[in-house]
Amino acid sequence: MASQTARDVPLLIRSVNASSERRISPSWSVAQLRAKLEPITGVPPSCQILTLRLPGHDGVVIEAQDEEVTQVAQWNLQAYAEIQVKDLRPPSALTNLTDTSAVPKYTMPASTYASLPATVLAWKKSQKLGRFDPSLPEHEAQKAQSLWDEIGTRGIRLGRRCRLGNEDTRRGTVAYVGEVEEIPGKGPWIGVELDEPVGKNDGGVGGKRYFSCGERRGVFVRPERVEIGEWGLLIEEDDDDLEEL
Fold first, then answer.
1. Number of H helices, E strands in the chain
2. For the purposes of burial, counting CB atoms within 10 Å of the CB of 134, is it exposed (0-12), middle (13-18) or buried (19 or more)?
3. Entry pTM
4. In 5, 53, 131, 206, which residue has its Cα 20 to 30 A from 143's Cα atom?
Protein backbone atom coordinates (compact mmCIF):
# COMPACT_ATOMS: atom_id res chain seq x y z
CA MET A 1 0.00 0.00 0.00
CA ALA A 2 1.45 3.38 -0.98
CA SER A 3 2.36 5.95 1.66
CA GLN A 4 -0.15 8.74 2.13
CA THR A 5 0.76 12.43 2.44
CA ALA A 6 -2.73 13.85 2.76
CA ARG A 7 -3.37 16.53 5.33
CA ASP A 8 -4.75 15.77 8.80
CA VAL A 9 -8.45 14.96 9.03
CA PRO A 10 -10.59 16.26 11.95
CA LEU A 11 -12.42 13.32 13.54
CA LEU A 12 -14.64 12.90 16.60
CA ILE A 13 -13.17 10.48 19.14
CA ARG A 14 -15.70 8.91 21.51
CA SER A 15 -15.36 6.46 24.38
CA VAL A 16 -17.09 5.84 27.70
CA ASN A 17 -14.94 8.47 29.42
CA ALA A 18 -14.08 10.86 26.58
CA SER A 19 -15.55 12.77 23.69
CA SER A 20 -13.44 15.24 21.76
CA GLU A 21 -12.38 16.41 18.30
CA ARG A 22 -8.91 15.37 17.19
CA ARG A 23 -6.89 15.74 14.00
CA ILE A 24 -5.80 12.38 12.62
CA SER A 25 -3.03 11.97 10.02
CA PRO A 26 -3.84 9.41 7.30
CA SER A 27 -0.13 8.57 7.24
CA TRP A 28 -0.24 7.12 10.75
CA SER A 29 -0.13 3.39 11.12
CA VAL A 30 -2.98 1.69 12.99
CA ALA A 31 -0.54 1.01 15.83
CA GLN A 32 0.33 4.73 16.01
CA LEU A 33 -3.35 5.63 16.05
CA ARG A 34 -4.01 3.26 18.93
CA ALA A 35 -1.05 4.64 20.90
CA LYS A 36 -2.24 8.24 20.41
CA LEU A 37 -5.79 7.36 21.48
CA GLU A 38 -4.68 5.88 24.81
CA PRO A 39 -4.02 9.20 26.64
CA ILE A 40 -7.28 10.56 25.20
CA THR A 41 -9.55 7.67 26.17
CA GLY A 42 -7.60 5.87 28.90
CA VAL A 43 -7.89 2.59 26.98
CA PRO A 44 -4.62 0.67 26.39
CA PRO A 45 -3.91 -0.07 22.71
CA SER A 46 -4.19 -3.84 23.19
CA CYS A 47 -7.69 -3.43 24.67
CA GLN A 48 -9.12 -1.11 22.00
CA ILE A 49 -11.78 -1.93 19.43
CA LEU A 50 -11.82 0.96 16.95
CA THR A 51 -14.91 1.52 14.84
CA LEU A 52 -15.08 4.19 12.14
CA ARG A 53 -18.60 5.55 11.65
CA LEU A 54 -19.48 7.61 8.58
CA PRO A 55 -22.85 9.32 8.07
CA GLY A 56 -25.28 6.95 6.35
CA HIS A 57 -22.92 3.95 6.60
CA ASP A 58 -22.47 1.02 8.94
CA GLY A 59 -19.52 1.12 11.28
CA VAL A 60 -16.22 -0.29 10.00
CA VAL A 61 -13.71 -1.83 12.40
CA ILE A 62 -10.21 -0.43 12.09
CA GLU A 63 -7.82 -3.36 12.41
CA ALA A 64 -5.13 -5.03 10.33
CA GLN A 65 -2.94 -8.10 10.36
CA ASP A 66 0.20 -5.95 10.55
CA GLU A 67 -0.85 -2.76 12.28
CA GLU A 68 2.73 -1.45 12.51
CA VAL A 69 2.82 -0.79 8.75
CA THR A 70 -0.86 -0.53 7.77
CA GLN A 71 -1.82 3.14 7.45
CA VAL A 72 -5.18 4.49 8.55
CA ALA A 73 -5.47 6.03 5.05
CA GLN A 74 -6.71 2.59 4.02
CA TRP A 75 -10.02 3.53 5.59
CA ASN A 76 -12.19 6.25 4.12
CA LEU A 77 -11.51 9.03 6.58
CA GLN A 78 -13.91 11.94 6.18
CA ALA A 79 -13.93 15.20 8.11
CA TYR A 80 -15.91 14.93 11.34
CA ALA A 81 -16.57 11.25 11.01
CA GLU A 82 -16.51 9.37 14.29
CA ILE A 83 -14.10 6.84 15.75
CA GLN A 84 -15.61 4.91 18.63
CA VAL A 85 -13.16 3.36 21.07
CA LYS A 86 -14.49 0.35 22.97
CA ASP A 87 -12.66 -1.06 25.98
CA LEU A 88 -12.26 -4.85 26.02
CA ARG A 89 -11.24 -5.01 29.69
CA PRO A 90 -13.74 -6.46 32.20
CA PRO A 91 -15.57 -3.90 34.39
CA SER A 92 -13.51 -4.95 37.43
CA ALA A 93 -10.33 -3.88 35.67
CA LEU A 94 -11.57 -0.48 34.51
CA THR A 95 -10.49 2.77 36.12
CA ASN A 96 -13.34 5.13 36.92
CA LEU A 97 -12.04 8.35 35.36
CA THR A 98 -15.20 10.31 36.20
CA ASP A 99 -15.08 9.74 39.98
CA THR A 100 -13.29 12.73 41.52
CA SER A 101 -14.03 11.89 45.15
CA ALA A 102 -10.53 10.51 45.74
CA VAL A 103 -8.75 13.31 43.89
CA PRO A 104 -6.85 15.66 46.25
CA LYS A 105 -8.50 19.07 46.27
CA TYR A 106 -7.00 22.40 47.15
CA THR A 107 -8.46 24.17 50.16
CA MET A 108 -7.47 27.80 50.54
CA PRO A 109 -6.43 28.71 54.10
CA ALA A 110 -8.79 31.18 55.77
CA SER A 111 -5.91 33.61 56.35
CA THR A 112 -5.05 33.62 52.63
CA TYR A 113 -8.68 34.21 51.64
CA ALA A 114 -8.98 37.04 54.16
CA SER A 115 -5.96 38.79 52.62
CA LEU A 116 -7.33 38.80 49.06
CA PRO A 117 -8.75 42.13 47.83
CA ALA A 118 -11.47 41.08 45.35
CA THR A 119 -13.63 38.64 47.34
CA VAL A 120 -17.09 38.62 48.91
CA LEU A 121 -15.43 38.83 52.30
CA ALA A 122 -13.48 41.94 51.29
CA TRP A 123 -16.67 43.51 49.90
CA LYS A 124 -18.55 42.84 53.16
CA LYS A 125 -15.70 44.45 55.08
CA SER A 126 -15.76 47.54 52.87
CA GLN A 127 -19.56 47.81 53.11
CA LYS A 128 -19.57 47.06 56.87
CA LEU A 129 -22.07 44.24 56.46
CA GLY A 130 -22.84 41.30 58.72
CA ARG A 131 -20.26 40.76 61.47
CA PHE A 132 -18.33 43.78 60.16
CA ASP A 133 -21.19 46.14 61.00
CA PRO A 134 -20.00 48.29 63.94
CA SER A 135 -23.59 48.49 65.21
CA LEU A 136 -24.04 44.69 65.19
CA PRO A 137 -23.53 44.22 68.97
CA GLU A 138 -26.21 46.82 69.65
CA HIS A 139 -28.65 45.15 67.24
CA GLU A 140 -28.00 41.73 68.76
CA ALA A 141 -28.54 43.10 72.26
CA GLN A 142 -31.85 44.64 71.18
CA LYS A 143 -32.96 41.38 69.60
CA ALA A 144 -32.04 39.41 72.71
CA GLN A 145 -33.98 41.83 74.90
CA SER A 146 -37.03 41.60 72.66
CA LEU A 147 -36.92 37.81 73.04
CA TRP A 148 -36.83 38.12 76.84
CA ASP A 149 -39.76 40.54 76.64
CA GLU A 150 -41.61 37.96 74.50
CA ILE A 151 -41.08 35.37 77.23
CA GLY A 152 -42.70 37.66 79.81
CA THR A 153 -45.59 38.60 77.52
CA ARG A 154 -46.37 34.97 76.71
CA GLY A 155 -46.08 33.83 80.33
CA ILE A 156 -43.42 31.25 79.51
CA ARG A 157 -42.13 29.65 82.73
CA LEU A 158 -40.65 26.32 83.72
CA GLY A 159 -43.24 23.58 84.14
CA ARG A 160 -45.97 25.25 82.10
CA ARG A 161 -47.82 23.33 79.42
CA CYS A 162 -47.51 24.53 75.83
CA ARG A 163 -47.81 23.69 72.19
CA LEU A 164 -45.48 24.71 69.39
CA GLY A 165 -46.39 26.60 66.25
CA ASN A 166 -50.14 26.01 66.68
CA GLU A 167 -49.58 22.28 66.08
CA ASP A 168 -51.64 20.05 68.34
CA THR A 169 -49.28 17.15 67.66
CA ARG A 170 -46.38 19.05 69.24
CA ARG A 171 -47.47 19.59 72.83
CA GLY A 172 -45.21 19.49 75.81
CA THR A 173 -43.89 21.10 78.98
CA VAL A 174 -41.44 23.98 79.28
CA ALA A 175 -38.22 22.46 80.65
CA TYR A 176 -35.63 25.19 80.05
CA VAL A 177 -35.55 28.96 79.52
CA GLY A 178 -32.27 30.70 78.71
CA GLU A 179 -29.24 30.97 76.45
CA VAL A 180 -27.97 27.97 74.48
CA GLU A 181 -24.39 28.63 73.49
CA GLU A 182 -24.25 25.69 71.08
CA ILE A 183 -27.03 27.13 68.88
CA PRO A 184 -26.11 30.16 66.70
CA GLY A 185 -27.95 33.35 67.55
CA LYS A 186 -28.06 35.59 70.59
CA GLY A 187 -30.91 35.60 73.09
CA PRO A 188 -32.91 32.99 74.99
CA TRP A 189 -34.23 29.67 73.77
CA ILE A 190 -37.11 27.65 75.15
CA GLY A 191 -36.42 23.98 75.82
CA VAL A 192 -39.58 21.88 75.63
CA GLU A 193 -40.10 18.25 76.66
CA LEU A 194 -42.60 16.99 74.11
CA ASP A 195 -45.37 14.48 74.81
CA GLU A 196 -44.49 12.52 71.66
CA PRO A 197 -41.09 11.63 70.12
CA VAL A 198 -41.31 14.28 67.41
CA GLY A 199 -38.42 16.44 68.60
CA LYS A 200 -34.74 16.83 67.76
CA ASN A 201 -32.85 15.73 70.88
CA ASP A 202 -33.03 14.50 74.48
CA GLY A 203 -32.50 17.87 76.12
CA GLY A 204 -28.84 18.12 75.27
CA VAL A 205 -27.06 20.09 72.52
CA GLY A 206 -23.47 19.65 71.42
CA GLY A 207 -22.63 17.44 74.40
CA LYS A 208 -24.06 19.87 76.98
CA ARG A 209 -27.17 18.93 78.96
CA TYR A 210 -29.86 21.60 79.51
CA PHE A 211 -32.67 19.28 80.63
CA SER A 212 -33.40 15.56 80.53
CA CYS A 213 -36.08 13.74 78.57
CA GLY A 214 -36.53 10.74 76.30
CA GLU A 215 -34.87 10.39 72.90
CA ARG A 216 -36.38 12.81 70.34
CA ARG A 217 -38.71 14.26 72.98
CA GLY A 218 -36.65 17.43 73.38
CA VAL A 219 -36.57 20.56 71.24
CA PHE A 220 -35.31 24.14 71.51
CA VAL A 221 -37.34 26.94 69.91
CA ARG A 222 -37.61 30.70 70.06
CA PRO A 223 -40.30 32.20 72.34
CA GLU A 224 -42.57 33.29 69.47
CA ARG A 225 -43.24 29.63 68.64
CA VAL A 226 -44.42 28.74 72.14
CA GLU A 227 -48.13 28.98 73.00
CA ILE A 228 -48.81 28.60 76.71
CA GLY A 229 -52.15 27.08 77.76
CA GLU A 230 -53.94 24.26 79.54
CA TRP A 231 -52.95 21.73 76.93
CA GLY A 232 -53.68 18.20 78.08
CA LEU A 233 -51.48 15.23 77.35
CA LEU A 234 -52.16 13.83 73.89
CA ILE A 235 -52.38 10.28 75.22
CA GLU A 236 -55.07 11.33 77.72
CA GLU A 237 -57.15 12.95 74.95
CA ASP A 238 -56.79 9.80 72.84
CA ASP A 239 -58.13 7.74 75.78
CA ASP A 240 -61.11 10.08 76.11
CA ASP A 241 -61.92 9.59 72.44
CA LEU A 242 -61.85 5.82 72.88
CA GLU A 243 -64.31 6.03 75.77
CA GLU A 244 -66.82 7.75 73.49
CA LEU A 245 -66.85 4.94 70.92
1. 5, 12
2. exposed
3. 0.50
4. 206
